[in-house]
Amino acid sequence: MKKIILILLAVLALNQADAQGKKTEKATFGMGCFWCTEAIFQRLKGVISVKSGYEGGALSNPTYEEVCTGATGHAEVLEITYNPMVISYDDLLEVFWKSHDPTTLNRQGADSGTQYRSVVFYHSAEQKSLAEKYKAELNKTNAYGKKVVTAIEAAKPFYIAENYHQNYFNKNGSEPYCRLVIQPKIEKLEKIFKAKLKN
């Protein structure tokens, strides 16, 4: 009987460890046009899915056209589902801050408006703390030569963008916009974060 109990306990422990290993978490970042940034996070080890969408505004179920006016208050964001046993939230923050200009208010490159703002929508107190700590360190060390203006806000309802926005670079890589604007970001990612990329 003792043996059976020990075997059952061992099996339960293995099942629990297996369940913990499969646990996923979410991270939500706004860093300009989601076409430009979706492809970056899709390539990271431990990232399970990346959805382009809208967050932080007042209107329910906004359309791309409505968000583009800047009147809804939404930002173009990525909702990232990841395995924290493979990639940490800290790692995701590092990629986030090194993949866009967090010092320009409501602007990324040629795109301007509140929908292109730099923002972290946190899903837990731990994510909030890590994002605030990272931002404070960037400002303390004057990492960009200018103040980081990234907003750090509690997650709000996420609205997935229209189908044609999803997986944009992978579907449209030969388009001029993809080659001129997105491809250089991918190349930068491959140089800086080579060890973090999927094979």
From TrEMBL:
Residues 26-178 form the Peptide methionine sulphoxide reductase MsrA domain. The active site is at C33. InterPro entries: Met_Sox_Rdtase_MsrA_dom, Met_Sox_Rdtase_MsrA_sf. It is an enzyme of class 1 (oxidoreductase). It comes from the Bacteria. The keyword Cytoplasm does not apply. Residues 1-19 form the signal peptide. One of its GO terms (molecular function) is L-methionine:thioredoxin-disulfide S-oxidoreductase activity. Its EC number is 1.8.4.11. SUPFAM superfamilies: Peptide methionine sulfoxide reductase. It catalyses: L-methionyl-[protein] + [thioredoxin]-disulfide + H2O = L-methionyl-(S)-S-oxide-[protein] + [thioredoxin]-dithiol; [thioredoxin]-disulfide + L-methionine + H2O = L-methionine (S)-S-oxide + [thioredoxin]-dithiol. Keywords: Oxidoreductase, Signal. Belongs to the MsrA Met sulfoxide reductase family. PANTHER family: PEPTIDE METHIONINE SULFOXIDE REDUCTASE (PTHR43774), PEPTIDE METHIONINE SULFOXIDE REDUCTASE MSRA 2 (PTHR43774:SF1). Has an important function as a repair enzyme for proteins that have been inactivated by oxidation. Catalyzes the reversible oxidation-reduction of methionine sulfoxide in proteins to methionine. This is Peptide methionine sulfoxide reductase MsrA. The gene is msrA.
